[in-house]
Amino acid sequence: MTALLFGSISTLADTSEIQRDSFNQAFKEHGLDWDWDQQEYAGLLGSNGGQDRVAAYAEARGETVDAAAVHATKSRIYQETLRSSTITARDGVAETFRAAKEQGLKVGLVTTTSADNLAALSDALGDTVPFDQFDVVVDQSKVAARKPDAEAYTFALQQLGEDASDVVAIEDNLGGVQSAKAAGVKVVAFPNGNTTGQDFGDTRRVDSVDLADLRQ
Fold it and tell me: Which residues belong to the signal peptide in this entry (predicted)?
């Protein structure tokens, strides 16, 4: 193992409920009578990409909605909330990050969310998970296809100069797991509060991360 790749934002800090609440606030701002409770939201997380999720939901209801505008509002609210909240890293994340750097591993963050969302999370986590120490950061501006497409991971591997067989990824949702596997990267599922019910098949699941365990 020569590199460790964290997947979506919620592999670092579980912001999934902040995400859901931000969607609901955005719906109100746009005059929509939608309200995603936790069960419904969890059921919608089988696909990646919030804008696409809003568009698909509107289509299923036979409604016409400016999904891009709704998602932009959601993103603004989400970023504002992150920066005004006390955010903590998930169990073992900060320790694993430090240990990986100390042991000479390359560490990356491989998402298909926006750079603005990552900046807000970086501000919220501060020195707990120092983003300036990532060896590669992938966001939606750097790839053409969202997860579960493999592009985000193949791009990260190219930037790091690493072979997929020497890398381990940590992902919190099924689309992310599929993306890593499509790129040939070994992956561990680390579900968040809203993806814990997803079926990860034969992918190993963990409730916390530990570098020694990930090396196995």
Answer: none
Residue 17 to residue 31: CA distance in whole angstroms: 21
The whole-model pTM stands at 0.92
Q: How many CA atoms lie within 13 A of 134 on its CB side?
A: 22
Which residues, 6+ apart, have CB-to-CB distance to 184 below 8 Å? 164, 165
Task: Spell out where 72-154 has E strands.
Answer: 106-110, 136-138
Nearest Cα to 12, choosing from 114, 125, 120? Answer: 125
Q: Summarize pLDDT for 155-186 with one digit per residue, the tens.
A: 999 999 999 999 999 999 999 999 999 999 99
CA gap 157, 39 in Å, rounded: 35
Contact 184, 165 (CB under 8 A): yes
pLDDT at position 49, please?
78
Q: Is 20 left (phi over 0), alpha (psi -120 to 50) or beta?
A: alpha
Residue 26 pLDDT exceeds 90: yes
Name the residue with tokens 């919220």.
Answer: 124
Residue that is written with structure tokens 């909240």 in the block = 85
**Amino acid at position 32, single letter:** L
Buried b (16+ CB within 10 A) or exposed e, 71-104: bebbbbbbbebbeeeebebbebbbebbbbbbeee
List CB contacts of 144: < 8 A, sequence separation 6 or more. Answer: 151
119 pLDDT higher than 90: yes
**Which structural domains are found in the chain, ordered by start?**
3-14+88-214 (3.40.50.1000), 16-84 (1.10.150.240)
Q: Residue 22 pLDDT > 80, yes or no?
A: yes
